[in-house]
Design brief:
Helices cover 40% and strands 8% of the residues. It is mainly α.
Length: 670
C-alpha cells in the first residue's frame, strides 16, 4: 500500500500541474510543467489516468455501445460537446508519453523504456482514433518553442500507419541485457504485479506485438495491404504474442478506497446510499441470448443471478409459462368441473391439462430503456380485451435483474486490455484472411479454451461440441422477447462464415472490454444488433430519430475546436467525409452517426424504416425462458427435487424457483 500511495502522490502532483490547461491550444503553450522526472515517477500516472479514462468511458458510454451491459440512465443517445475527454487524452496522458518518448529516443541504454512508452502511446492513440476518427497526431503536441497555433488533423489511415510503425519499432527494441540493468521500470504498473514490482520485458514485448496484430486487423477496411503486412510480421514468431493467462495485459487497481480504488467502485458502490437499477450495469438481452442459446457457463462469471445483490430477501420477478400435466393426478371434485364424467368414462389416464404457472428465472436481462418504439404497441391477448405487457417489465424489486458481477466492479478489480483468448482469435482471423483455414480452426478452438480458463470454468468440451460453436457448423439461437433479433451463428461454409464464428466468440470472450467490443462490431458488422428505441424521448443529438436510433458510431469533436483550431477542425471533418462509408451531414458532418473509415457500413441502415418505422403490434415470446425447467409439470417437479433435495412436490417447487400455479387453461385428450 505504501507503493500505491507513493504512486498516487506522483499522480496527484502531475494532475495538479495540468489542472489549469483546459483548451487544446494551451497544451503546447504552457511551459510550467516539469519533465525532468524519471519515467518511474510519471509513467504510473499516465497508466492510472488511462485506466480511469477507460472505465469512465465504458460506464458512461461504451457499455451500452458494445451491448455488453445496460446502464439504464445512458440508453438515450447523447453527444459530448465539451473537451473533457480530449483533455484527458492529450493533456493528461499523451503529453507525458510524447515527452518521455523524445527523451529516450536514440539512447540504447533506455531501449526497453522507450519501447514501453511507444506501446502505451500507441494504445492511447488507438483508443482515441477509434472513438473520433481523424484527430491531431503528428503535430498535436509540438515542443513549446515551436508551438503552432493550429494542430492539423491526421487521417485515420495516416494515424494507423504511424501507430503500426511505432509498434513495429517498439517490438524490435526490447532486450534483456546486463549492459543496461536499469533499463526497466522499478515500479511497473502494467506487468509489475499487484505490488507494482519490476518490469517483465518479455511480457511487454508480447503486449506490443499482440497490440500490433490487433490494430493491423482493426485497420483492414482502410488498407488490407497495411493489415496484411503488419499482421503477418507480428505472427512470424508466435512465442512473442500473448500465450498464457499470465501474459494478459491486466491493469490492477488498488485496495485503498481513498487512493487507488477503481472508478467503477467509486462511482457505483462506495458512495451509493441506495441501489438504483438505472445506474448499476446489468445483463443486456442481446448479449444474454447468445449465452442462453449455447448454454454458456461463463454467464455465471459475467453476471450475478437475479436478486443476489439484495442485502435482504426480496420477491423475485416471476415469469408466466405454459406447461402440460397429467389430468388424472389433479382430477378432484374441487378442481375438476366435470369430475364425475371423467371418473366414469375410463379415459382419465389419457387426458392432459394445459396450465399457466409462475416461476422465477435464475438470470434476468435488464431492458434497454424503452421496450417499444414510438408508434408501436403490444398486441391483444387472444380472446381478451387485454394487451400483452413487457415480460421483463414486471419487477417487484430493483434487484430482480442480473447485474454485472462484482468481480468487475470491486475496488481492486482489473482492467484487461488484451486477454489470452484475444491472441488466439486474432491469429485465427489473420489465418482466415492471409493464411491457413486449418490453423484458423485450431486457433479458434484454443481461443475458446483460453477464455474458459480465464474464468476458471469447466465444460469447454461440451460447449465446443454444439452446433454453431463447433467449427464449420451453424447454430440457431434464441430470439429476444420481441422477436426482433436471433442469436444465430452461421459458421458452415466459406471464409465469411468462419470469420463470423471467430468474431462472435471473440466478442463473448472480451466481455466488458467495451472498447474492443464496440470496435469489433463496427469493423465487422457481424452482430448487427437492432437499434435502441426512443419512443418519443428527447435528445440533444443532431440527426436523432425520436422513434429508433442505431447506436453511436463516433464521438464528436469538442465544440471549442471550432474557435481554437477552426481551419484544422473543418479539415478533420473533410477527412471523415472522404473515407466514411456512411456520412451524416447533420451538425455539418461532425455527427455521432457518421461511420468512421475503419468501420464497415451498417447493412441494416437501408432497411431501417421498413424494419422499425411506423406502427407495429408486438406479441412477446421469451424463448429463452419458456419451459426452462421442463416442458411438463412432472419434469418441472423432477428438476425442483434435484435442485433442492426436497421430497415433497410443492415444497421442492417453491424452494427451487418460487413456483405458483395460476390456472388450468383446458383439458383434452391428445
Amino acid at each position: 500500500m505504501k507503493k500505491i500511495a507513493y504512486i498516487l502522490t506522483i499522480i496527484t502532483f502531475c494532475t495538479a500541474s495540468l489542472s489549469c490547461k483546459k483548451n487544446f491550444e494551451e497544451i503546447n503553450t504552457n511551459n510550467n510543467k516539469i519533465y525532468n522526472v524519471d519515467v518511474n515517477d510519471i509513467f504510473s500516472g499516465t497508466v492510472s489516468r488511462t485506466m480511469r479514462l477507460i472505465q469512465d468511458l465504458s460506464f458512461n458510454k461504451l457499455m451500452n455501445f458494445s451491448r455488453y451491459a445496460v446502464v439504464g440512465f445512458a440508453t438515450n443517445p447523447s453527444q459530448v460537446m465539451d473537451d473533457n475527454y480530449f483533455n484527458q487524452f492529450y493533456v493528461g496522458i499523451l503529453r507525458d508519453l510524447l515527452r518521455m518518448e523524445k527523451e529516450y529516443e536514440g539512447k540504447p541504454d533506455y531501449a526497453n523504456r522507450l519501447a514501453m512508452v511507444k506501446t502505451w502511446k500507441s494504445y492511447v492513440f488507438y483508443m482515441m482514433t477509434s472513438m473520433y476518427g481523424s484527430i491531431p497526431m503528428s503535430k498535436a503536441l509540438a515542443d513549446s518553442d515551436h508551438s503552432p497555433r493550429e494542430y492539423a488533423y491526421d487521417t485515420e489511415l495516416e494515424i494507423y500507419t504511424q501507430i503500426l510503425k511505432d509498434l513495429k519499432d517498439a517490438g524490435a527494441l526490447y532486450g534483456v541485457s546486463t549492459s543496461y540493468p536499469s533499463d526497466i521500470l522499478t515500479r511497473d504498473p502494467v506487468f509489475g504485479g499487484s505490488n507494482f514490482g519490476k518490469s517483465d520485458i518479455l511480457k511487454w514485448q508480447k503486449f506490443t506485438n499482440t497490440l500490433r496484430l490487433n490494430i493491423a486487423l482493426h485497420a483492414q477496411n482502410l488498407s488490407m495491404d497495411l493489415a496484411r503486412t503488419h499482421a503477418t510480421e507480428a505472427m512470424v514468431d508466435e512465442t512473442k504474442l500473448i500465450s498464457s493467462l499470465d501474459d494478459m495485459v491486466k491493469l490492477q487497481w488498488g485496495s485503498d478506497e481513498a487512493l487507488s480504488a477503481s472508478y467503477y467502485f467509486t462511482r457505483l458502490i462506495k458512495t451509493a446510499t441506495t441501489f438504483n437499477d438505472s445506474t448499476y450495469p446489468a445483463l443486456g438481452e442481446y448479449f444474454g441470448i447468445y449465452l442462453f442459446s449455447y448454454n454458456d457457463p461463463r454467464l455465471s462469471s459475467f453476471v450475478h443471478k437475479a436478486n443476489v445483490l439484495s442485502p435482504i430477501p426480496v420477491k423475485p420477478m416471476l415469469y408466466t409459462d405454459t406447461l402440460t400435466r397429467k389430468h388424472a393426478n389433479f382430477c378432484t371434485s374441487t378442481e375438476c368441473p366435470t369430475f364425475a364424467a371423467h371418473q366414469a368414462d375410463g379415459l382419465n389416464g389419457s387426458r392432459i391439462d394445459d396450465i399457466l404457472v409462475d416461476y422465477s428465472m435464475p438470470y434476468v436481462p435488464l431492458p434497454e430503456g424503452n421496450s417499444l418504439a414510438a408508434g408501436w404497441e403490444w398486441e391483444f391477448i387472444p380472446g381478451t380485451t387485454n394487451r400483452y405487457s413487457d415480460p421483463l417489465g414486471s419487477k417487484s424489486s430493483p434487484y430482480n435483474f442480473s447485474f454485472v458481477h462484482t468481480e468487475f466492479l470491486k475496488e481492486n478489480t482489473s482492467t484487461i486490455l488484451l486477454n489470452w483468448a484475444d491472441s488466439y482469435f486474432l491469429r485465427a482471423e489473420a489465418e482466415m484472411l492471409f493464411g491457413s483455414e486449418v490453423k484458423a480452426a485450431q486457433h479458434y478452438e484454443a481461443g475458446i479454451r483460453a477464455s474458459f480458463a480465464q474464468y476458471g470454468q469447466s465444460g469447454v468440451e461440451t460447449y465446443l461440441a454444439q452446433n454453431g460453436i463447433k467449427w464449420n457448423t451453424d447454430g440457431k439461437g434464441f430470439a429476444d422477447r420481441r422477436l426482433l433479433y436471433r442469436a444465430n451463428i452461421r459458421g458452415k461454409g466459406g471464409k465469411e462464415n468462419h470469420l463470423e464464428q471467430i468474431y462472435k466468440q471473440r466478442y463473448i470472450a472480451d466481455y466488458l472490454n467495451c472498447l474492443e467490443g464496440w470496435n469489433l462490431e463496427r469493423r465487422t458488422r457481424v452482430l448487427r444488433f437492432p437499434p435502441f428505441f426512443a419512443n418519443g424521448a428527447a435528445s440533444d443529438v443532431e440527426g436523432y430519430n425520436p422513434q429508433y436510433n442505431y447506436w453511436t458510431e463516433r464521438f464528436i469533436y469538442p465544440i471549442v475546436e471550432q474557435s481554437k483550431n477552426k481551419e484544422a477542425y473543418y479539415k478533420g471533418i473533410e477527412n471523415l467525409k472522404a473515407i466514411s462509408p456512411y456520412y451524416r451531414g447533420d451538425r455539418w458532418g461532425d455527427n455521432v452517426y457518421t461511420t468512421l473509415g475503419f468501420a464497415k457500413l451498417n447493412p441494416d441502415l437501408i432497411f431501417a424504416q421498413q424494419l422499425y418505422g411506423g406502427n407495429k403490434k408486438i406479441t412477446p415470446n421469451v424463448e429463452y425462458f419458456n419451459n426452462k425447467y421442463g416442458k411438463t409439470y412432472e419434469e418441472v417437479v423432477a428438476t425442483a427435487k434435484s435442485m433442492t433435495g426436497e421430497t415433497d412436490d410443492n415444497q421442492a417447487l417453491i424452494k427451487a424457483f418460487d413456483y405458483k400455479f395460476r390456472q388450468r387453461l383446458l383439458t383434452y385428450i391428445p
